Amino acid sequence: MSKTLKLVLVGLLVALGVVLTRFLSIETPIVRIGISFIAIAAAGILLGPVHAAFVGALIDIVGYALKPTGPYFPGFTISGALHGLSYGLLLHCRRPRLWRVLTASAISAFIIGGFLTSLWLAVLQSGRAFAAVYQSILLTRVLPALVLFPVQIILIWAVWKSLEKLRFTAAVPK
């Protein structure tokens, strides 16, 4: 894939991710429910871990510039990059396998989205009682993560299969 095509895909996926994250999601102070993971997963499938990490980080940075929700915190940018890295490592240049989607989704939803994002929120909101704040945020985020997990698997699987078909029918190079 040429550098120009990669740059165009990164730009398109960042734009898609920003729209899905900042404008087409349900937000509370603790939980954001949306489907922005589709853009990051597509970047991981098409472009690999490094470019997908950039897409994840840029979605956070550009999204904050367009529609800030509170103070800027670099921890969320790190989480976005880690989402892209996990999708890229597990899904890029591979044949579609359900266990890969399950693993990538579990890492994204529970480890990065659950533990790490809860940690960032606790750092932003806590004073002296850090452990209590972290525990309450983590417990609040568990139910939405459990509900969205199967949706995430189904959508990523569908995107992956569609991109595989596109690769062969449109002669898009790997």
Automatic annotation (TrEMBL):
UniProtKB keywords: Membrane, Transmembrane, Transmembrane helix
GO molecular function, one term: transmembrane transporter activity
Keyword match Membrane: yes
Pfam family, one: ECF_trnsprt
InterPro entries: ECF_S_folate_fam, ECF_trnsprt_substrate-spec
Keyword Hydrolase belongs to the record: no
Transmembrane segments: 6-25, 37-66, 72-91, 98-122, 142-160
NCBIfam families: ECF_S_folT_fam (TIGR04518)
Name the record gives this protein: Folate family ECF transporter S component
Organism: Ethanoligenens harbinense (strain DSM 18485 / JCM 12961 / CGMCC 1.5033 / YUAN-3)
